[in-house]
Amino acid sequence: MAAVSSERPSHSRAMLGCLTATRGPAGWLSLLALLSLLALAASAPALAQAPAPPSFQGGTVYGGGQIGKRFASHKIRFVSIRVSPERSLLRFYARFDAACAGLPQGALASRIKEVPLTSDGSFAGDEEYVDAGDVATQQGSWQFRGRFREPDVARGTVRFRFTLHLNDGRSFQCDSGVVRWTVRDPLRAPGSGVLRRAGAYFGHSAKPIPLPKFAPLLLRVSRDRERVAVMAFIQEVRCRDNREHSVGPALGNFPISRRRHSFGGTASYSNRFGGQTERITVTIRGRFTRRRASGHLRVKTRIVRDGRQIDECDSGRLRWAAESAGRG
Predict the structure, then answer these.
(1) pLDDT, tens digit, for every residue of 110-145?
(2) For residue 205, what is the DSSP state?
(3) Which residues of 19-35 are buried (b: 16+ CB within 10 A; e: fewer)?
């Protein structure tokens, strides 16, 4: 930059001299030729430079993944990315179901990996892993790749392939297939939140400061634009003993007001695990606007064993935001 700025005064003096010294047709032709040479010389360094990297901000969280056009949990795939402050590394998070031959319900796969971020905004990861759970162990690999296309959006693919070893001795081969994902940052660089027919919206839920590590959020509008067909997200809740765990609600059928394009409601459901039941209540409020869809949400849970409550957890009131995926 210093070399370019230091040359500008000399170019200006040369052109001023030409303007005062050239008169008549021959002089003007010479001036035109000189101007053409100067323009060519000025453009040559620019043509030799590599394309500028995307202007995404460091420390930013991007959320989304993939959501089907019909309500089905196996069509909801969560992906989230956190970029390091210096924009040299990123942490990639993916969580979704993989199909398993002989096991109709499939299996949930969830991994996190930190990888380098190149100057052109691209990244990739490949990892073998063993993940031991309460009732089964996964052993396999996962691969992902992607690139930042704009300051507020990245797109790519991810795939899980693993063997699921159940504690009862059975084993199943599982494969998610290649999943195409999109993530967006609707807080720092909002795009569009206009209400669209069958529109998909990607983003995340977050406390104002700091942003969570990973809290992807997906939303799908019905074809008639009269309701939120599906809203799904991952969120941490804190329990009375200060322990945290994540929940993944997938809710639907929230009516959208025609005048303000707002929606909201409360829904409850239960999950059973390890001889106990977690009763989850989710409250959602939101609105579609020109720049983003946004609102607030809260998740409360009660953990019950043998008919007696043994714990309760709460996310607190959280802000969420999402923007149009741009394509279904």
Answers:
(1) 999 999 999 899 999 999 999 998 889 999 999 999
(2) E
(3) eeeeeeeeeeeebeeee
Cβ atoms of residues 66 and 230 within 8 Å: no
22 SS3 class: coil
Widest Cα–Cα separation across the chain: 102
How is residue 260 annotated by DSSP? Answer: T
The pLDDT tens digits of the residues spanning 267-303 come to 999 988 778 999 999 999 999 998 889 999 999 999 9
Q: What are phi and psi of 51, to 5 degrees?
A: -60, 145
**In the chain, where are the structural domains located?**
2-48, 61-324
H or E element in which residue 8 lies: helix 2-21
Question: Cis omega before residue 53 (within 30°)?
Answer: no
**Contact indicator for 286, 320 with CB cutoff of 8 Å:** yes
* pTM assigned to the model: 0.76
Q: CA-CA distance, 264 to 266, in Å (whole number)?
A: 7
Determine whether 285 is exposed, middle or buried from the number of CB atoms within 10 Å of its CB (0-12, 13-18, 19+): middle
CA end-to-end distance (rounded Å), the chain:
42
278 pairs with which residues across the strands?
Answer: 271, 303
Q: Tokens 């969420």 correspond to what residue?
A: 320
Read off the tokens for 286: 């939101």
Judge whether 248 and 233 are in contact, CB under 8 Å. Answer: yes
Task: Give the span between the Cα atoms of 271 and 25, in whole angstroms.
Answer: 88
DSSP type of residue 31: H
How many C-beta atoms lie closer than 10 Å to residue 126's C-beta? 11
Residue with tokens 């929606």: 263
Give dist(CA 90, CA 80) in Å, integer: 10
In this structure, the strands spanning 318-324 and 293-305 are antiparallel
Distance CA 316, CA 35 (A): 65
pLDDT band at 190, cuts 50/70/90? low
The 3-class SS string of 284-301 reads: EEEEECCCCEEEEEEEEE
CA angle 118/160/186 to nearest 5° reads: 50
The 10 Å Cβ neighbour count of residue 97 is 18
